[in-house]
Recover the amino acids of this structure.
């Protein structure tokens, strides 16, 4: 399997002289093929062509943009098993979750089609003051320009869709930089978009290293950079972006708060899977489970049973697998190192744990983690769950906010006053009631505060960021 960049809607020529990187199956390390990296001339061509394509993409009427987006959704649906298989093979995602990602991608493009057709115009009451007598204001939104979308390995289809779909809906040319571990889904999305009628000169997918990705961010021609990935890389790219609008979704160490009146059956139905699914390689995976002290013992007992017997782990190709391999050996080394460091600092492994291979870690439940440990303060991005008791809601809020991150939090309570207190007090982009913070539907505003990023994904909110408001004052 040889993967090549797409320039102006077409794969670049195969070149034996071009630099390349291997594609590796995270489960067993098997070679899947190679990807040919784009060179400087190809990066420049993508930048020049996309900048020149702005009038053509902006000229597409809303109905036509919606039609293109619907066609992409249909194409993804028709290739569901192929795309799911690529996600399993390249990203190591368990197959049931891979199919779920494909289904979410279909929903993302359909929601974008609806937003593309929705009127964006707004009448402004210029004549609300005497000086505006005889005038009416019309506020319209226009495409901001070229969008550079950079996506991570853990959702190599749907997080690319969250860059691509709003760009098409807004009428913006795009340059996608897919993850080096899992580039194939982005290439297929671009193929589907061009086949549906999107102008080829505004459609580019570059398989590039970090140096050339940085060039895309630094170049003055793109107007928008949308990045999902690590905080260190994201904030560095923001510093390099100059005058561009930068949207960052950077991860977290998501807390769940279980109040004393919570339904423990509901907690158990939602939290273990949300902690360990895809080996915790989701930025809103449950990392810290904060439980009212009155419920700590019974919930701990049930969690131990779930970790020991109820979380299927191993081969991602098995339908029942919940927790598969880490993306690579370096990631597994880091996660295991954080767990070992926490235990050396006084934490206790309550259930699970251990390493079964270069990339495979067993799900683990840990208690008593010191708050200066990376396992508490950092983003684990692995199959670990930290258990901690709180005394009251103020204490719970303090524990949850004791983090540089602020993406989403889950809260379990039947007390509406407690729910609104938590909504006011938690420093996050979203509070999810009676569910895990992994809950997300793709049309909702999604993003974080603090080190978790800037801006919001979700079609309506992303389209607003990809467009510029322009006022027309009419004398009439």
């Amino acid at each position: 399997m040889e993967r090549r960049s797409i320039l102006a809607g077409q794969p670049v020529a195969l070149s034996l002289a071009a630099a390349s990187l291997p594609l590796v199956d995270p489960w067993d390390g098997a070679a899947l093929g190679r990807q040919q990296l784009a060179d400087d001339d190809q990066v420049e061509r993508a930048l020049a062509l996309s900048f020149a394509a702005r009038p053509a993409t902006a000229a597409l009427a809303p109905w036509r943009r919606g039609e293109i987006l619907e066609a992409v959704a249909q194409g993804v649906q028709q290739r569901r098993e192929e795309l799911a298989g690529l996600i399993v093979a390249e990203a190591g995602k368990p197959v049931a979750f891979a199919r779920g990602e494909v289904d979410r991608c279909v929903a993302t493009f359909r929601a974008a089609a609806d937003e593309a057709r929705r009127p964006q115009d707004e009448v402004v009451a210029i004549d609300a003051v005497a000086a505006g007598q005889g005038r009416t204001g019309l506020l319209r939104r226009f495409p901001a320009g070229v969008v550079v979308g950079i996506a991570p390995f853990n959702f190599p289809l749907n997080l690319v869709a969250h860059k691509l779909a709003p760009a098409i809906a807004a009428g913006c040319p795009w340059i996608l930089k897919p993850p080096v571990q899992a580039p194939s889904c982005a290439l297929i999305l671009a193929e589907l978009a061009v086949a549906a009628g999107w102008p080829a000169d505004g459609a580019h997918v570059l398989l590039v290293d970090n140096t050339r990705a940085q060039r895309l961010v630094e170049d003055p021609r793109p107007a928008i950079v949308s990045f999902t990935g690590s905080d260190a890389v994201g904030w560095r790219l923001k510093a390099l972006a100059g005058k561009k609008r930068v949207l960052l979704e950077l991860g977290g160490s998501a807390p769940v708060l279980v109040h004393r009146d919570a339904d423990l059956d509901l907690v158990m139905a939602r939290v273990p899977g949300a902690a360990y699914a895809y080996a915790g390689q989701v930025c809103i995976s449950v990392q810290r489970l904060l439980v009212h002290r009155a419920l700590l013992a019974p919930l701990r007992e049930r969690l131990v049973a779930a970790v020991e017997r109820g979380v299927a782990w191993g081969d991602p190709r098995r339908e029942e697998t919940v927790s598969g391999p880490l993306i690579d050996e370096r990631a597994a080394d880091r996660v295991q190192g954080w767990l070992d460091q926490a235990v050396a600092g006084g934490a206790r492994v309550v259930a699970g744990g251990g390493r079964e291979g270069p990339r495979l870690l067993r799900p683990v439940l840990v208690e008593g983690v010191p708050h200066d440990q990376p396992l508490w303060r950092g983003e684990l991005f692995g199959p670990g769950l930290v258990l901690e008791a709180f005394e009251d809601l103020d204490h719970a809020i303090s524990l949850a906010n004791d983090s540089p991150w602020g993406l989403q939090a889950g809260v379990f309570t039947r007390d509406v006053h407690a729910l609104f207190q938590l909504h006011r007090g938690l420093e996050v982009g979203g509070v999810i009631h009676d569910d895990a913070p992994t809950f997300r539907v793709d049309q909702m505003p999604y993003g974080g505060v603090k080190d978790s990023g800037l801006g919001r994904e979700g079609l309506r909110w992303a389209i607003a960021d990809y467009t510029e408001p322009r006022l027309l004052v009419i004398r009439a």
In short: The first helix runs from residue 40 to 52.
